[in-house]
Structure formats: C-alpha cells, structure tokens
Amino acid sequence: MTTLTKTEGAPPPTGSNAFLSVRDLRVQFSTEEGIVKAVDGLSFDLERGKTLGIVGESGSGKSVTNLSILGLHSPQNTTITGEILVDGQDVTDVSRKEMESLRGNKMAMIFQDALTALSPYYTVGRQIAEPFVKHTGASKKEARARAIEMLGKVGIPDPKSRVDDYPHQFSGGMRQRAMIAMSLVCNPELLIADEPTTALDVTVQAQILDLLKDLQQEFGSAIVLITHDLGVVANVADDLLVMYAGRAVERGSVREVLKSPQHPYTWGLLSSMPSLGSDVNEPLRPIPGTPPSLLNPPTGCPFHPRCEFAELVENSSRCVHERPVLAEGRASACHLTAQQKQQIFIETIQPRLG
Ligand code: ADP
Ligand code: MG
Question: Within its chain, how far is the Cα of 301 from the centroid?
C-alpha cells in the first residue's frame, strides 16, 4: 500500500517519497455563529500512480480538504494551518498566481457536476483546448488537435465532429467525460476527483471509474478520489482514508479496510450501504443519530455520541474526554483494544453485512 505514515499532530516524517503529503491540516471558517472546524488535524500521503479514496458522510470535511489542496478557499474567512506538500512544495504558502499555474499544470480537478464546470457558451473543444494553450503555449491548431485526441481518449465517439458541440449537446455521462478530458489535457501529476460519479447512473458510473483507472495507467497520475460511497472506492482506490467530523478515523489499503474494518464509524458506513456486489434491495442499517456540528464538535472521540460500542471501552469516559489518536500505517482512531475491534467485527458486524 501507499505509505500513510504520520500520527495526528506529530512532526512531519523525513524521507517520504509521496507526491502529495498532507500534514496536520486544519481548516477553520469564521462564521456569524462561530468557528467551524471543518478539517481538524488531517494527515495523509499519496504516491504517484496511486489512488487514495477519501470517504465519509456528507459534511465530514472531504470537499474542504480538496479545495485546500487546490488553493480554492476564499482567504477572507478561512484559516488554514499545517502543510500541503505537492511534489515537495508547500501549496499553503504560494502566491495566487503560482497556485493558478499549479492548477491545470501539476494538478487538476474533476467535480461532481460537469454542468457547472463547463461553460454553456463555448464549445466543448474550446474548453478542453484553453488550458492546454495557457499552460503549454501551443498554437490554436495544435490545441484543437489535442482536444480531439483527448475526447477520443475519454471515449467520446466521433471526436472530430463532437469537438465543436456545446455542452448541452452532450449527455450527462459525456459531459463528465469531457470534463475529465479537460482536467487531463495537461497531463497533471495529481488529479482530485470530488464525487466524480455521484450525479451519474450506475452503468455510466462504472464506465467513468474504469476510464479514470485506464487514464491513470497511461498518465501515471496520483488520484485523490473523494466519495461518500464505499462501493466507488472499493473498485478503484489503492488506499482508503475514512473521515468523520474533519478527522481521519481509519486508514489502510482498501483491501485491509474492507476486509477487516476497525473503527465503529467504518462499521456503520459498511452496514448502511448495500453490500458490495450484492443485491441493492437488501435492507440497510443507517447509522443512528446525525453527524455532529463542526461549530461545536463533541469532546474526546467525535463519534462517541453515535457509537454503540463506546460502553465496551474500559473506562468508557475516555471516549468522552480523550481524543483517540490515529497511529501510523494501518490504523484506526478508537479507544477499543485491537482485540475488541476484531472480536466485535467478527461477532457483531460481519453477520449484519450478510
Ligand atoms: P463533505 O465531506 O460533504 O464534502 P465539506 O468539506 O463540504 O463536507 O464540509 C465540511 C464542513 O465545513 C460542513 O459542516 C460545511 O458546512 C462546512 N463548510 C464548508 N465550507 C464552508 C465555508 N466556506 N464557510 C463555513 N462553513 C463551511
Ligand atoms: Mg463534498
């Protein structure tokens, strides 16, 4: 697996060969109601050619993390601390202009909604060509040829004529492909895909994920794949980071995390979704309660108010008072002992998953 080393709050490790390295990231928004701690001490590493899945319920800080990496938060009400190293360069510390050049060149993004990412007023081809001209200085003719090439790569049939279409002439799945073409046109080394398939139906979803995998093979990019859907990461990601209330609560390779998940929140996520590869009509078990307010998050373990296993922790007031640390490597931030986690998973959770 990609090495995900780093304990929350610990100093950065040396000798990491990660392309993207996030160190103790904290992102806070000042609002009329108070300070929103959207990301609260997040660390992870991602190597070139690998995909990291970040999963968590809505509001867990996934998009805020993504926008921090891309330098897209408004500076007015946002405080970002920690480090975000992209190829060794701390992007929390670069000028707007430098950031703009990094975006598109070294890193690119794919969002959930291609309709908002693509302008209705310009042809698809022009929108793919534009960043290519901007970042490589190519001629218009070269850029058009490149746009046609990219449309072909993302599986748009007859790209030579579709290059002159407007976004509304494309289906939803085709628009998503066009946006992927636009993101990849400059061979970015880091691709951030935030819920890239959420708006699509299941068949198209699978096609787009396959496409991302193929393109990654070809371009060798590092991909951060953000999703609320464990099924999406199961097939595509190498490593998995489970987020809750702005923190990482579990990490490991996808295989390890799905085969023997350790954190009660991850158990909840797994039980609340249709089991991987089986009938979508199976009854689901939503996680009781609601995600916490990040204005005033719970003390100790942020998941404790919803955790059905907190009482099994020896001296369970620890869950209320002591923030569990996420250790290095394969780990979960929970006060249960390793033995308890294994036992609960086998005896209680696995039977629920069917
Ligand atoms: P998700 O995991 O669903 O992508 P987000 O990262 O979008 O969650 O949001 C995390 C939290 O940060 C949410 O509680 C959201 O309301 C809050 N948040 C996001 N952006 C802002 C902002 N600009 N100002 C205040 N709060 C924000
Ligand atoms: Mg989001």
Answer: 22
Instruction: Using CB atoms within 10 Å of the CB of residue 352, give its burial: 0 to 12 exposed, 13 to 18 middle, 19+ buried.
Output: exposed
Report how far ligand 1's centroid is from the alpha carbon of 56 (Å): 13
Q: Whose CA is nearest to atom 19 of ligand 1?
A: 64
pLDDT digits (tens, 9 = 90+) for 94-146: 998 999 889 878 999 988 777 778 999 999 999 999 999 998 999 999 999 99
Ligand nearest to the CA of 67: 1
Query: Is the beta carbon of 241 within 6 A of some atom in ligand 1?
Result: no
Q: Give the span between the Cα atoms of 130 and 132, in whole angstroms.
A: 5
Q: Around ion ligand 2, which residues have CB less than 5 A away?
A: 62-63
Residues β-bridged to residue 348: none
Model confidence pTM above 0.85: yes
5 three-class SS:
coil
Flag whether pLDDT at 232 surpasses 60.
yes
pLDDT digits (tens, 9 = 90+) for 272-288: 887 654 555 556 788 99
Tokens, residue 319: 């869950």
Which residues are paired to 222 by β-bridges? 190
For residue 294, give Cα distances in angstroms to 15, 108, 147, 317.
34, 28, 42, 21
If we measure between CA atoms, which residue out of 111, 106, 140, 99 comes closest to residue 123?
A: 140
User: Can you tell me whether residue 187 is helix, strand or coil?
Assistant: coil
> What is the per-residue pLDDT for 280?
56
Relative to the CA of 61, which ligand 1 atom is closest? Answer: 6
DSSP structure string for 101-169? HHHHHTEEEE-S-HHHHS-TTS-HHHHHHHHHHHHH---HHHHHHHHHHHHHHTT-SSHHHHTT--GGG
- C-alpha 113 to ligand 2 mean position (Å): 11
- Identify each DSSP E strand in the chain by its residue range: 20-31, 34-46, 51-55, 78-86, 89-90, 107-110, 190-194, 222-227, 239-244, 247-253, 331-332
Statement: residue 309 has pLDDT above 90: yes
Do 108 and 192 form a contact (C-beta atoms < 8 A)? yes
